[in-house]
Every structure is written in structure tokens, then in C-alpha cells.
């Protein structure tokens, strides 16, 4: 007498559960990538009630140690004008966004404004400096 098994083993592998896992991982990484802070330099911005939106060409950072960064590259204040000019030379009216810590002296802000004004005078351009602020609570 031959004994037969009632339950037959299925040797096929179902890919549906694997595709579900891949889909969930894709969603997870898409959501977490949008939560990454855009500023690599930690700043405590001054607060303001006004809201000015502008197309930014170049971003200048000044941290609480009074270091100046242009697009996350550390720059000496004496070389700031040359670095800014190399980034905005092809534009007639660029916006330089200044993101400075609220504890730095005003003189450091004036250094950036003077560099942009000097570029404007030498090249007959209309670049402007915008001071970035955080919303007032």
C-alpha cells in the first residue's frame, strides 16, 4: 500500500512579499531624505516678522565663530569679493543671501555688504544682499 502525502510542497518562490518590502523601503528613504536639514552650518538666525522670498544665487554664511563661508566653503574676508564675483559674474542682478548667526557683530555683516557693493560699482551691476531671518514666534 502506497502512502501519499495530502499536502504537496510548493517549490515556487513568491516575489510579491519581496516587492512589498522594496516598496516600503523606497517610501522610507524618500521621506527621510526630505527631512535632512539644508544648512550644513549651524546658525541661530535673527527673528523677523517680514517675509521676503527671492531667487537666491549665492548663499553666504557667518557662524558664531565669525567664520565666513560661501556655499559651505570657508573664505577669508579679504578674498570674499573675488569669490563672490567668480560665482555671480554672469548675472546682472543676483541675490546674495546672507545667513548669519544673531550673535555676531554687525561689522561682519557690513563686510559682506561692502564686498557686494564693490562688485556692483566695478562692474555696473545690481546685485543685492538679503539677510535671512527665522520667523518670529
- Annotation field: number of helices: 3
Output the CATH topology of the domain at 47-135: Nucleotidyltransferase, domain 5
* Count of DSSP strands: 7
The oligomeric status of these chains comes to single chain
- Content of β-strand: 15-25%
Architecture of the domain at 47-135, CATH level 2? 2-Layer Sandwich
Overall average residue pLDDT: 81
What would your notes on this structure say?
- The protein is α/β, with parallel strands linked by helices and 137 residues long.
- It has a domain at 47-135: Nucleotidyltransferase, domain 5, CATH 3.30.420.
- 34% of the residues lie in helices and 18% in strands.
- The protein contains 3 helices and 7 strands.
- The chain has helices at residues 16-34, 80-88, 106-123, and strands at 47-48, 58-62, 68-70, 73-75, 95-100, 128-131, 134-135.
- The strands form 2 sheets. The chain has a 5-stranded mixed beta sheet, covered by helices on one side. A two-stranded parallel ribbon has the order 1-7.
- Strand 2 and strand 3 form a beta hairpin.
- Helix 2 crosses helix 3 (106-123).
- The mean pLDDT is 81.
